[in-house]
Amino acid sequence: MKMENGSAIMEDSNVRQFFEETLGDDGIRIINTLMGREATDESIAEELGIKLNLARKILYKLYDYRLASYVRTKDKDIGWYIYTWKLNLPRVLDVIVERKKKVLEDLSSRLDYETNTVFFSCTNDRFRIPYDIASEREFRCPQCEGTLEFSNNEVVVERLESEIAKLQDEIENPLTEALNTAQLQ
Ligand SMILES: [Zn+2]
User: How far is the CA of 121 from the centre of ligand 1 (A)?
Assistant: First the structure.
């Protein structure tokens, strides 16, 4: 079901989560009120009953992500500039994918480290260090002097592998629900 003003994209849970995390509830209200039209920052703040500074802060955050743009015009009567905003919401999918790719890079290097390192951990407090360091310290815990024993990191590796697989799948299919990009145009 295509919604003419582009609001279908907000139905997606990944998209909503992204906006909740980066902009909060006021951000989502601004997006909803700006959907499918153009409006000045002043009129948005007024309509939503929020401070102009807050509305501007959120709009510029959207602008940083290239999810909104503005046109600046000079009001001849009052002599100052007016900023008229509009959204570019379909780009949010690229933004989400870019963020996930960064997380994927981090997880991949952690997986590399885990698979290429032999760990030892303390029998008292589970403090975990690589074999090289454990050996230098004569297999005594740097925290409590307890005994260090071989620590199987299979569970850590499996968890990382499944997080990586999940992310790769999400990067290939950025929309979580029964939406497709054609509906967002
Ligand atoms: Zn210890």
Answer: 8
User: Taking Cα atoms as reference points, which of 89, 21, 24, 15 lies closest to residue 54?
Assistant: 24
Helix (H) or strand (E) holding 142: none
Q: What is the DSSP string of 107-122?
A: HHHHHHHHHT--EEEE
Domain parsing of the chain, residue ranges:
7-87, 94-172
Domain 7-87 = CATH 3.30.420.40:
no
Residue 75's pLDDT is what? 86
CA of 140 to the centre of ligand 1 (A): 8
Q: What is the model's pLDDT at position 7?
A: 77
Q: What is the whole-number distance in angstroms between the Cα of residue 143 and the centre of ligand 1?
A: 5
Q: Collapse the DSSP code of 127 into the 3-class scheme (helix H, G, I; strand E, B; otherwise coil) and give the result.
A: coil
What is the rounded CA–CA span in Å between residue 132 and residue 139?
Answer: 10
Ligand 1 center–CA 113 separation, angstroms: 22
